[in-house]
Amino acid sequence: MSTGHNTLPQTVAARPASRVSSRRNTGAGVLGGGNRTAWFFLAPYLLLFTVFVLIPAIYGLWISLHNWDPFLADKPWMGLQNYVELFTPGSAKSAPFWQAMQATGIFTALSVPLLVVLPLFVALMLNRKFPGRTFFRAMYFAPYVLGVAVVGVLFRFLLDPNIGAFNYLLGQVGLPSDTAWTTALPWAWVSLVGMTVWWTLGFNAVIYLAGLQDIDRQLYDAAKVDGASRWQTFRNVTVPGLRPVFVFVVTVTILASANMFGQAYLTTQGAPAEKTRTAIMFIAEEGFNDFHLGSAAAMSYVLALFLMALSAVVFFLLRDREPAAANAKAGR
Amino acid sequence: MYIPGMARGATRRELLIAGAGACAALVSGCGGGSSPRAAFGTGAGYDGPEVELAFWNGFTGGDGPQMLTLIDRFSKENKNISVRMVTVRWEDFYQKVPAAVRSGVGPHIALMHVDQLATSAAHDAIVPLDDLARDLQLRQDDFAAPVWQAGEYRGRRYGIPLDMHPLGLFMNTKVLEDAGMDPKTPPRTGDDYDAALQELKAKKIQGDWVSPFFFTGGLRFQSLLWQFGGELVNEDATKATWNSDAGVDALNWMISLVKKGYSPSNVGQDADNIAFKNGQAAFIWQGIWGVGDYGVTEGLKWRAAPLPRIGTQDAAWANSHQFVVMRPRSGTEDEMKASKVFIDWVTRNSASWAEAGQIPARRSAREDPVFKKLEAQSALAEQVPNLRFAGGVPGITDVRESTLDQALAEAITGAMNPREALDMSARRASELLRLNREKYATA
């Protein structure tokens, strides 16, 4: 329950070319038997997916339609009441839920741009040849190996408004030393976004680095021959070459940021006044602390729908426009 | 995994009876009233065959070894009862215990905070102990009225009190002495307290850091609410009432400390405690568990005293660990009888338990010279008749956490007007109480 980017970037390597060839293979392949082979290879993951994703997801939907306390024998049917409650202004559940959704939204909006852009520059630096390159590559990635608990507790003490090292050092160099980094806005957001960027920047940088090394050197050579400037090379070779990596980085970073839990849970505890309590934090409290699993499940579904919509938008914006562009050029 | 009853090979008949009981519980919807009665046998002793009891608690700190010492002593005196203690962090305790009980791997006995008793009773995880109390001839008089009454829910007893852990006034004696004050005469009234803080301020010390967090701000607010004559909820727990004038007075007094410069604004989580230990503050309204923390803090000189009376009467927030007996799945009468013996023995011999930063609930243990020698604990024990325990309503702690705690933070950090914050949170809390009442109505 952290913003751990656990998904590995295997999908990035998938090339459009392989799509074509694999379709041809199955088309010409063994009739019937080919299908069975496909199912056979998919079975292990499909089994895990069914047991740990599909069934819980459907079960969760069922739970969300009840007043569900796991320890009460009576779990009365509520219909859509749990959802209605969330969309009724002034009800006991709606205000804190939407405040938590807003907190998640703010965090995502602030952290995603930084986590998409900064690591790219870091990766560009680390992709050049200079002495100590391996050392820096390791150093930038290092924070990522820390667990969320370590990072959270570490920053809670570093950033403590009254007794933290951060304010003390600011004071030593003559800057204001009484900023409430963890207990007032907007500072709590600055802290949470800052520590998350410090923590996970290395991961995105490594993905970019892999993407950079995957770009054909010949393209750079060709650009050089054509007399392209450094900016033009970046604009016309590097950026298009990284497009599939962008899709991956943006999507994964959005999902990870939207699932933020540990940093706020440990560092600000939702302070000030639950303004930094994220949606996941609130859902966990509602379900597992207060035993209102029904409404917690409903909230999870609302959050999930939001994330699905957001991911769809990202895919749409960063979709492969090349064929269209190529056609347009040809037409002209 | 430990399955009660299986350990010493329950007879087939016992299992059948227990099974029938479990089925009956399922059919009747596990309703509190219609569930099978827990049979504690008769009498107060145990001379049956050897049994092993599983005993759960959340003593993950220095209190764990203290409890183990007690259990060792118990085992020496009661050869035929062995007790296996399992510790689960309190943070996870109230999620794990009902789940374990429901799936039949729960303990025989456990310790719970008194504010969680009603929730656990509504979840049918624990059984009424009226028979147990009768067999052991336990009466309110053997304990203290507030802590004894707090162990009841819907007119039945669910908890046997082990200890009380109240809020108290802790003083950093070095800071006070340096400022020319005598820590041996602690402030008793609001005026005393204000004067002391004023004097500290003149010496450039912010004497009392007001935390916007539940620890310790929320504990302080509740104490003050009671001191001003208010209550958290009304008689039948249908409405939150902390937005009364008493509540507003309590909160305004806390905020006045910040406004007068006796406390920094925006105090961080735990910063009040660290400031006290560092000698940046002179006072802290801290739970008695501070005894353990401050006792091992190098270079810290401190004393404890009852809370000053800021409002119109003496009152202090407190919580209590109470013994509960879990709903037996396949437990035998022998185990229930042995549980009874264990609970009686530990509460009676709890004087040494006080060393873990507690006040024994049982009067005889409080009168024990072993306890009287503990200076800080004894000082805080002066508050025993005035202690207040929040409980008696299922889900009350969760409601408070998601409403009142937030309002206090808003008001103390200056983001919201105190009365407005209390009004809004009380309105939401009343709504949550209504939802809880609906949910627990059948229990």
Explain the overall architecture.
- The complex is a heterodimer of chains A (332) and B (443).
- Chain A has 332 residues and is mostly helical.
- Chain A contains 15 helices and no strands.
- Chain A starts with 15 loop residues before the first helix and ends with a helix.
- Mean pLDDT of chain A is 85; it is low at 1-29.
- Chain B has 443 residues and is α+β, with helices and mostly antiparallel strands.
- In chain B, strands 7, 8, 9, 10, 12 and 13 form a six-stranded mixed sheet that branches. A five-stranded mixed sheet of chain B has the order 2-1-3-11-6. A two-stranded antiparallel ribbon of chain B has the order 4-5.
- In chain B, strand 4 and strand 5 form a beta hairpin.
- The longest helix of chain B has 23 residues, at 418-440.
- Chain B is globular and about 70 Å long.
- Residues 1-36 of chain B have low confidence and may be disordered.
Please tally the β strands of chain A and state the result: 0
Low-confidence segments of chain A:
1-29
Main β sheet profile of chain B: 6 strands, mixed
Distance between the termini of chain B: 29 Å
Number of helices of chain A: 15
Oligomeric form of this entry? heterodimer
Number of helices of chain B: 19
What's the helical proportion of residues of chain A?
A: 55-70%
The chain-level structural class of chain A is: mainly alpha
Helices and strands in order:
The complex is a heterodimer of chains A (332) and B (443).
Chain A: H1 16-28, H2 33-63, H3 81-86, H4 94-126, H5 133-141, H6 148-158, H7 165-172, H8 187-214, H9 217-225, H10 230-241, H11 243-258, H12 262-268, H13 279-289, H14 293-317, H15 322-331
Helix pairs in contact in A: 4-8, 4-11, 4-13, 5-8, 6-12, 8-11, 8-12, 11-14, 13-14
Chain B: H1 12-27, E1 51-57, H2 63-77, E2 81-87, H3 90-102, E3 109-113, H4 117-122, H5 130-135, H6 145-149, E4 152-153, E5 156-157, E6 160-161, E7 163-172, H7 173-178, H8 190-202, H9 214-227, H10 245-259, H11 271-278, E8 283-287, H12 290-295, E9 302-305, E10 316-319, E11 321-325, H13 333-348, E12 359-360, H14 363-366, H15 369-372, H16 375-381, E13 387-389, H17 396-402, H18 404-412, H19 418-440
Parallel strand pairs in B: 1-2, 1-3, 10-13
Antiparallel strand pairs in B: 3-11, 4-5, 6-11, 7-8, 7-9, 7-10, 7-12
Helix pairs in contact in B: 9-10, 9-18, 18-19
